[in-house]
Amino acid sequence: MAELYVEGWSPEYGAAVDLSDERVAASPIDTSVEVDGLWSPMNGHDDDIETVAFVDGIRRIDARLTLDDPVAGPVAGICGSFAVGATIWDRKARRSVYAHQQVHRMAVLASGSHIDFPIVGQALDYRAESVATDDPAALLAHFHGAMRRAEAALSARLAASGTFVIADGPINELRAQPIVGYIKSHRVTYLGSDLMPVIGRVRAGQRTPIFLIDGAQFARYSWYVRLADLAGGHSWTGIVRCEAPTALGIDAAARLADRTAALLPLTASEPHIDPRAPQNLVPIAALERHLRRRLGDQALVYRSLQAAVAESRATLPAAEFATESASEIR
After folding, report:
1. Are strands 211-214 and 29-30 parallel, antiparallel or unpaired?
2. Residue 296's beta-bridge partner residues?
3. What is the mean pLDDT of the chain?
4. Domain edges within the chain
5. Does the chain have fewer CB atoms within 10 Å around its N or its C terminus?
6. pLDDT of amino acid 316
7. Whole-prediction pTM value?
8. What is the mean pLDDT of residues 156-184?
Protein backbone atom coordinates (compact mmCIF):
# COMPACT_ATOMS: atom_id res chain seq x y z
CA MET A 1 0.00 0.00 0.00
CA ALA A 2 1.29 3.47 -0.87
CA GLU A 3 2.29 5.60 2.13
CA LEU A 4 2.68 9.36 2.59
CA TYR A 5 5.90 11.08 3.74
CA VAL A 6 7.13 14.63 4.27
CA GLU A 7 10.41 15.17 2.40
CA GLY A 8 13.53 16.00 4.41
CA TRP A 9 14.64 18.63 1.86
CA SER A 10 13.68 22.24 2.57
CA PRO A 11 10.78 23.21 0.25
CA GLU A 12 12.66 26.12 -1.39
CA TYR A 13 14.95 23.59 -3.11
CA GLY A 14 12.07 21.75 -4.78
CA ALA A 15 11.93 18.01 -4.11
CA ALA A 16 14.46 15.21 -4.23
CA VAL A 17 11.88 13.14 -6.12
CA ASP A 18 9.89 15.28 -8.59
CA LEU A 19 8.19 13.31 -11.35
CA SER A 20 5.59 15.94 -12.26
CA ASP A 21 6.98 16.86 -15.70
CA GLU A 22 7.87 13.49 -17.19
CA ARG A 23 7.43 10.24 -15.35
CA VAL A 24 8.99 7.65 -17.67
CA ALA A 25 12.23 8.04 -19.61
CA ALA A 26 11.77 8.30 -23.37
CA SER A 27 15.25 6.89 -24.10
CA PRO A 28 15.65 3.13 -24.63
CA ILE A 29 16.92 1.39 -21.47
CA ASP A 30 18.99 -1.81 -21.41
CA THR A 31 19.00 -3.38 -17.95
CA SER A 32 21.10 -6.41 -18.93
CA VAL A 33 24.49 -4.75 -19.52
CA GLU A 34 25.89 -5.87 -16.13
CA VAL A 35 23.36 -8.38 -14.79
CA ASP A 36 21.41 -10.40 -17.34
CA GLY A 37 18.80 -11.86 -15.07
CA LEU A 38 17.47 -11.29 -11.55
CA TRP A 39 18.45 -7.93 -10.07
CA SER A 40 19.42 -7.43 -6.43
CA PRO A 41 21.39 -4.79 -4.46
CA MET A 42 25.17 -4.95 -4.92
CA ASN A 43 27.76 -4.04 -2.28
CA GLY A 44 30.17 -1.21 -2.95
CA HIS A 45 33.92 -1.63 -2.81
CA ASP A 46 36.52 0.90 -1.63
CA ASP A 47 39.56 0.36 -3.83
CA ASP A 48 41.62 2.93 -1.87
CA ILE A 49 41.65 5.53 -4.63
CA GLU A 50 43.87 8.29 -3.24
CA THR A 51 42.49 11.45 -4.91
CA VAL A 52 38.88 12.37 -5.60
CA ALA A 53 37.76 15.63 -7.20
CA PHE A 54 34.23 16.97 -6.72
CA VAL A 55 33.45 19.40 -9.56
CA ASP A 56 30.56 21.85 -9.49
CA GLY A 57 29.47 25.28 -10.65
CA ILE A 58 27.13 27.97 -9.36
CA ARG A 59 25.39 30.69 -11.32
CA ARG A 60 23.70 34.01 -10.59
CA ILE A 61 21.69 36.48 -12.65
CA ASP A 62 23.27 39.86 -11.87
CA ALA A 63 20.83 42.07 -13.80
CA ARG A 64 18.14 42.11 -16.47
CA LEU A 65 18.92 44.10 -19.60
CA THR A 66 16.83 45.89 -22.22
CA LEU A 67 18.37 47.04 -25.47
CA ASP A 68 16.08 49.92 -26.48
CA ASP A 69 16.27 49.87 -30.27
CA PRO A 70 14.18 52.56 -32.02
CA VAL A 71 13.75 50.37 -35.11
CA ALA A 72 13.46 46.82 -33.83
CA GLY A 73 11.90 47.67 -30.48
CA PRO A 74 13.10 46.59 -27.03
CA VAL A 75 15.34 43.52 -26.91
CA ALA A 76 15.63 41.49 -23.69
CA GLY A 77 18.90 40.43 -22.16
CA ILE A 78 20.58 39.29 -18.97
CA CYS A 79 23.88 39.81 -17.20
CA GLY A 80 25.03 36.76 -15.32
CA SER A 81 28.02 35.41 -13.45
CA PHE A 82 29.01 31.82 -12.90
CA ALA A 83 31.90 30.11 -11.17
CA VAL A 84 33.23 26.58 -11.48
CA GLY A 85 35.82 24.77 -9.42
CA ALA A 86 36.72 21.59 -7.59
CA THR A 87 37.14 20.26 -4.09
CA ILE A 88 40.15 17.95 -4.16
CA TRP A 89 39.97 15.23 -1.52
CA ASP A 90 43.37 13.75 -0.68
CA ARG A 91 42.32 10.61 1.14
CA LYS A 92 45.85 9.63 2.14
CA ALA A 93 46.56 13.03 3.74
CA ARG A 94 42.99 13.24 5.04
CA ARG A 95 42.44 16.78 3.83
CA SER A 96 40.58 18.67 1.12
CA VAL A 97 41.40 21.88 -0.76
CA TYR A 98 39.60 24.10 -3.24
CA ALA A 99 41.25 24.26 -6.65
CA HIS A 100 40.85 25.41 -10.25
CA GLN A 101 38.31 28.15 -9.47
CA GLN A 102 37.18 30.15 -12.49
CA VAL A 103 34.73 33.07 -12.62
CA HIS A 104 32.96 33.91 -15.89
CA ARG A 105 30.63 36.83 -16.57
CA MET A 106 28.30 37.07 -19.56
CA ALA A 107 25.90 39.59 -21.07
CA VAL A 108 23.42 37.70 -23.27
CA LEU A 109 20.98 39.48 -25.59
CA ALA A 110 18.03 38.03 -27.48
CA SER A 111 17.11 38.30 -31.18
CA GLY A 112 20.67 37.95 -32.41
CA SER A 113 21.62 41.38 -31.09
CA HIS A 114 25.29 42.25 -30.61
CA ILE A 115 26.81 45.12 -28.65
CA ASP A 116 30.15 46.13 -27.23
CA PHE A 117 29.36 45.72 -23.55
CA PRO A 118 30.89 48.45 -21.38
CA ILE A 119 33.75 47.75 -19.03
CA VAL A 120 32.40 47.31 -15.49
CA GLY A 121 35.41 47.97 -13.27
CA GLN A 122 38.66 46.02 -13.34
CA ALA A 123 37.25 42.78 -11.92
CA LEU A 124 33.92 42.65 -13.80
CA ASP A 125 34.58 41.74 -17.41
CA TYR A 126 31.31 40.70 -19.08
CA ARG A 127 31.56 38.80 -22.36
CA ALA A 128 28.76 39.81 -24.75
CA GLU A 129 26.91 37.00 -26.53
CA SER A 130 23.48 36.54 -28.10
CA VAL A 131 20.79 34.00 -28.91
CA ALA A 132 18.83 33.99 -32.14
CA THR A 133 15.37 33.78 -30.57
CA ASP A 134 13.43 36.31 -28.51
CA ASP A 135 12.35 33.63 -26.02
CA PRO A 136 13.48 34.76 -22.53
CA ALA A 137 14.02 31.13 -21.53
CA ALA A 138 16.68 30.84 -24.23
CA LEU A 139 18.77 33.48 -22.47
CA LEU A 140 18.91 31.39 -19.30
CA ALA A 141 19.50 28.19 -21.27
CA HIS A 142 22.45 29.76 -23.12
CA PHE A 143 23.93 31.05 -19.87
CA HIS A 144 23.44 27.73 -18.08
CA GLY A 145 24.90 25.85 -21.05
CA ALA A 146 28.09 27.91 -20.84
CA MET A 147 28.47 26.96 -17.17
CA ARG A 148 27.87 23.28 -17.91
CA ARG A 149 30.53 23.34 -20.65
CA ALA A 150 33.01 24.93 -18.26
CA GLU A 151 32.26 22.23 -15.67
CA ALA A 152 32.73 19.51 -18.29
CA ALA A 153 36.04 20.98 -19.45
CA LEU A 154 37.37 21.11 -15.88
CA SER A 155 36.20 17.54 -15.20
CA ALA A 156 37.97 16.34 -18.35
CA ARG A 157 41.24 18.06 -17.41
CA LEU A 158 41.22 16.56 -13.92
CA ALA A 159 40.32 13.10 -15.19
CA ALA A 160 43.10 13.28 -17.79
CA SER A 161 45.57 13.68 -14.92
CA GLY A 162 44.34 10.43 -13.37
CA THR A 163 42.04 11.98 -10.77
CA PHE A 164 38.71 10.29 -10.05
CA VAL A 165 36.02 12.93 -10.70
CA ILE A 166 32.54 13.25 -9.23
CA ALA A 167 30.81 15.89 -11.36
CA ASP A 168 27.65 17.41 -9.91
CA GLY A 169 24.95 16.87 -12.53
CA PRO A 170 24.63 14.74 -15.68
CA ILE A 171 27.80 13.99 -17.62
CA ASN A 172 28.67 15.76 -20.87
CA GLU A 173 31.85 13.79 -21.55
CA LEU A 174 32.01 10.92 -24.03
CA ARG A 175 35.66 9.96 -23.68
CA ALA A 176 36.86 6.99 -21.64
CA GLN A 177 37.74 8.97 -18.52
CA PRO A 178 37.07 8.24 -14.82
CA ILE A 179 34.22 10.76 -14.54
CA VAL A 180 30.97 10.02 -12.71
CA GLY A 181 27.97 12.30 -13.07
CA TYR A 182 26.14 12.77 -9.77
CA ILE A 183 22.39 13.42 -10.00
CA LYS A 184 20.84 14.18 -6.62
CA SER A 185 17.20 14.74 -7.64
CA HIS A 186 14.90 12.52 -9.68
CA ARG A 187 12.62 13.85 -12.42
CA VAL A 188 12.45 10.73 -14.58
CA THR A 189 12.12 7.05 -13.76
CA TYR A 190 14.31 4.76 -15.83
CA LEU A 191 13.36 1.32 -14.55
CA GLY A 192 10.16 -0.61 -15.06
CA SER A 193 7.83 -1.76 -12.31
CA ASP A 194 9.58 -5.13 -12.20
CA LEU A 195 12.94 -3.57 -11.19
CA MET A 196 11.80 -0.47 -9.32
CA PRO A 197 11.49 -2.32 -5.97
CA VAL A 198 15.23 -3.13 -6.10
CA ILE A 199 15.99 0.58 -5.53
CA GLY A 200 14.04 0.48 -2.29
CA ARG A 201 16.04 -2.52 -1.08
CA VAL A 202 19.41 -0.84 -1.64
CA ARG A 203 21.04 0.08 1.67
CA ALA A 204 23.78 2.63 2.39
CA GLY A 205 26.99 1.43 0.78
CA GLN A 206 25.14 -0.51 -1.90
CA ARG A 207 24.03 0.14 -5.46
CA THR A 208 21.76 -1.25 -8.12
CA PRO A 209 23.19 -3.07 -11.13
CA ILE A 210 24.22 -0.83 -14.02
CA PHE A 211 21.76 -0.09 -16.81
CA LEU A 212 22.33 1.59 -20.18
CA ILE A 213 20.49 4.79 -21.13
CA ASP A 214 20.61 5.02 -24.91
CA GLY A 215 19.87 8.73 -25.22
CA ALA A 216 19.34 10.72 -28.38
CA GLN A 217 22.64 12.63 -27.94
CA PHE A 218 24.79 9.87 -26.47
CA ALA A 219 24.52 6.70 -24.43
CA ARG A 220 25.71 6.42 -20.84
CA TYR A 221 25.81 3.86 -18.06
CA SER A 222 23.80 4.59 -14.95
CA TRP A 223 23.08 3.13 -11.50
CA TYR A 224 21.45 4.10 -8.19
CA VAL A 225 23.27 4.46 -4.85
CA ARG A 226 21.88 5.02 -1.36
CA LEU A 227 23.83 7.54 0.70
CA ALA A 228 22.30 6.89 4.12
CA ASP A 229 19.66 4.81 5.86
CA LEU A 230 17.50 7.49 7.49
CA ALA A 231 14.91 6.66 10.12
CA GLY A 232 11.40 7.46 8.92
CA GLY A 233 12.43 7.76 5.28
CA HIS A 234 10.58 6.39 2.29
CA SER A 235 12.05 3.87 -0.15
CA TRP A 236 13.84 6.57 -2.22
CA THR A 237 15.13 8.65 0.71
CA GLY A 238 18.87 9.17 0.30
CA ILE A 239 18.91 7.66 -3.19
CA VAL A 240 21.03 9.30 -5.91
CA ARG A 241 21.70 8.32 -9.50
CA CYS A 242 25.15 8.15 -11.08
CA GLU A 243 26.30 8.16 -14.71
CA ALA A 244 29.50 7.18 -16.51
CA PRO A 245 30.59 7.25 -20.18
CA THR A 246 29.96 4.05 -22.10
CA ALA A 247 33.40 4.51 -23.71
CA LEU A 248 34.85 3.16 -20.44
CA GLY A 249 33.37 -0.27 -21.08
CA ILE A 250 31.17 -2.15 -18.64
CA ASP A 251 34.01 -3.60 -16.53
CA ALA A 252 35.58 -0.20 -15.83
CA ALA A 253 32.16 1.33 -15.24
CA ALA A 254 31.37 -1.42 -12.72
CA ARG A 255 34.56 -0.58 -10.79
CA LEU A 256 33.52 3.08 -10.68
CA ALA A 257 30.03 2.10 -9.59
CA ASP A 258 31.42 -0.04 -6.75
CA ARG A 259 33.67 2.86 -5.76
CA THR A 260 30.82 5.36 -5.64
CA ALA A 261 28.69 3.04 -3.52
CA ALA A 262 31.51 2.83 -0.97
CA LEU A 263 32.76 6.44 -1.02
CA LEU A 264 29.70 8.64 -1.52
CA PRO A 265 28.08 7.70 1.83
CA LEU A 266 31.28 8.92 3.53
CA THR A 267 30.69 12.41 2.14
CA ALA A 268 26.90 12.60 2.61
CA SER A 269 25.63 15.69 4.42
CA GLU A 270 23.63 15.78 7.64
CA PRO A 271 20.16 17.35 8.01
CA HIS A 272 21.30 19.80 10.71
CA ILE A 273 24.06 21.07 8.37
CA ASP A 274 22.48 21.12 4.91
CA PRO A 275 18.80 21.55 3.91
CA ARG A 276 19.37 19.14 1.00
CA ALA A 277 20.82 16.36 3.15
CA PRO A 278 21.98 13.75 2.55
CA GLN A 279 22.13 14.25 -1.23
CA ASN A 280 24.05 17.53 -1.29
CA LEU A 281 27.48 16.06 -0.53
CA VAL A 282 29.66 17.90 1.99
CA PRO A 283 32.52 18.61 -0.50
CA ILE A 284 30.03 19.97 -3.05
CA ALA A 285 28.13 22.10 -0.52
CA ALA A 286 31.40 23.59 0.75
CA LEU A 287 32.53 24.27 -2.82
CA GLU A 288 29.23 26.01 -3.60
CA ARG A 289 29.69 28.36 -0.64
CA HIS A 290 33.29 29.08 -1.66
CA LEU A 291 32.38 29.78 -5.28
CA ARG A 292 29.47 32.01 -4.26
CA ARG A 293 31.89 34.25 -2.40
CA ARG A 294 34.07 34.40 -5.51
CA LEU A 295 31.19 35.95 -7.45
CA GLY A 296 31.30 39.05 -5.25
CA ASP A 297 28.55 40.94 -3.45
CA GLN A 298 25.42 40.88 -5.60
CA ALA A 299 24.23 44.37 -4.65
CA LEU A 300 27.64 45.89 -5.36
CA VAL A 301 27.85 44.12 -8.74
CA TYR A 302 24.37 45.37 -9.63
CA ARG A 303 25.22 48.98 -8.79
CA SER A 304 28.45 48.73 -10.79
CA LEU A 305 26.51 47.43 -13.78
CA GLN A 306 23.99 50.24 -13.54
CA ALA A 307 26.72 52.88 -13.37
CA ALA A 308 28.77 51.45 -16.25
CA VAL A 309 25.78 51.05 -18.58
CA ALA A 310 24.47 54.51 -17.75
CA GLU A 311 27.90 56.05 -18.43
CA SER A 312 28.23 54.27 -21.78
CA ARG A 313 24.73 55.39 -22.75
CA ALA A 314 25.51 59.00 -21.88
CA THR A 315 28.57 59.05 -24.14
CA LEU A 316 26.65 57.76 -27.23
CA PRO A 317 24.49 60.31 -29.11
CA ALA A 318 20.91 59.21 -29.63
CA ALA A 319 21.09 59.31 -33.45
CA GLU A 320 24.30 57.27 -33.47
CA PHE A 321 22.82 54.77 -31.05
CA ALA A 322 19.74 54.31 -33.26
CA THR A 323 21.84 53.77 -36.38
CA GLU A 324 24.19 51.29 -34.73
CA SER A 325 21.37 49.39 -33.06
CA ALA A 326 19.38 49.04 -36.25
CA SER A 327 22.42 47.83 -38.19
CA GLU A 328 23.19 45.26 -35.52
CA ILE A 329 19.66 43.85 -35.59
CA ARG A 330 19.66 43.32 -39.35
Report:
1. antiparallel
2. none
3. 87
4. 11-317
5. N
6. 47
7. 0.86
8. 92
